[in-house]
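Meet my pick.
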Amino acid sequence: MAHSFADITPPIALTPLDGRYRSQVAPLVDHLSEAALNRARLVVETEWVIHLLDREAIPGLRTLTEDERALLRSIPEEFGAKGIAEHAEIERETVHDVKAVEYYIKRRLAGTSLEPLAEIVHIYCTSEDVNNLSYALMVRGAVHDVWLPAYEAVIGDLAQLARDTAEVPMLSRTHGQPATPTTLGKELAVFVHRLSRQARRIPANQILGKINGATGTYAAHAISVPGTDWEEVSRSFVEHLGLTWNPLTTQIESHDWQAEIYADVARAGRILHNLATDVWTYISQGYFRQRLSAQGGTGSSTMPHKVNPIRFENAEANLEISGALLDSLSQTLVTSRLQRDLTDSTTQRNIGTALGHSLLAIANLRKGLAGLDVDPDAMAADLEGNWEVLGEAVQSVMRTLGVQGTTGMDNPYERLKELTRGHRVTGEGMREFIEGLGLPEAERDRLLALSPATYVGYAARLVGHLDEDPVGGDTGGSTAS
């Protein structure tokens, strides 16, 4: 019988994020792991004790000394391997993770000057008061401190490549067919602009929190200490944590803000997916050459000549997984039956997986882009083989002359369609056609001087709009806060 991998110690990872790709997503562990969740809970619980005493919310209790504040704040700061194991031991007894956090804190207050005040820990709180604030802190850290800087970095890489290739002419393809030429840099700049809009949206999302009791009514607070303005205590505490106060909730904070952020991250990922598929196509057309050292040691197990675009394919797959998970999070988290159900608990434990696949995709995109060399000769050859794309230029000039009153400019579209549709036209053939149109000299000479490589309009100039973006280049720093 085959050996069971489930019995091996240390445990073998079930998912590739904690196995094969661990090093590339490891920064998220500090924010979205189970241990990070418990550390965030410790922050919320200890800060709540400090806040209640500092605000004198409960009459008759003394204020804290600076040493006592430091003691409370040291509890989450010192939460490491031993603390994780101890919390797990307590949870096996309580069969409740938040209650285990409460007991963990009380153990650390035992024998100190704070022991008489230990019952303030978790007072007036439901588990969701602690959890919603903990997830808010975790998601803010993961998105702003880990995901967004990586996302902005790939935008910066792409922006530089766009600027470097702003004047490199390239044949466009609409519907997969040869179309009006552009420049490589302009096409990459389109992606930079799209991605940059999302980079500005994501940190602008509000991150909400609440601390208002079992059904959002402050019932336990008001019956225990009726003289305290508990709404103000709640608001000031949530804002102390750097979050936006939600004044109206059921037992849970409604999670709408999470859905908004995940939708934005998913949309950013879909734009990155579009970038990956386009770059993959440019590689297949020979517009980009891949340096083997940047892509990996082996291109194909049987075909040694190949350098496969694996970085872009890996990014595609991970963005698809990430997008599906983020969509599921967005859809599930906005619904809670009546005043509370527990679907959000399991759902939120997959936030790290969703962002992890996105972060992994970004890492692969950056490696892939770093390993590309532009091949202007391949693009030039493609342009030279498609003179028929100048049909648009010729018929546009003829139309303009026709509406200005020049005779002989009738049916320009139809005449060009007859010449070009479904046919490959050579440079010589296009020039002969232009010569026979009876154009005024200035327009004739302008068209005769044109080639597919020079028919790019303002493409190179348009790349300059990137300098107006606060994201994607040397004109601005990170939007994360």
Q: What stands out?
A: The domain at 128-216+251-375 is CATH 1.20.200.10 (Fumarase C; Chain A, domain 2). The chain has 21 helices and six strands.
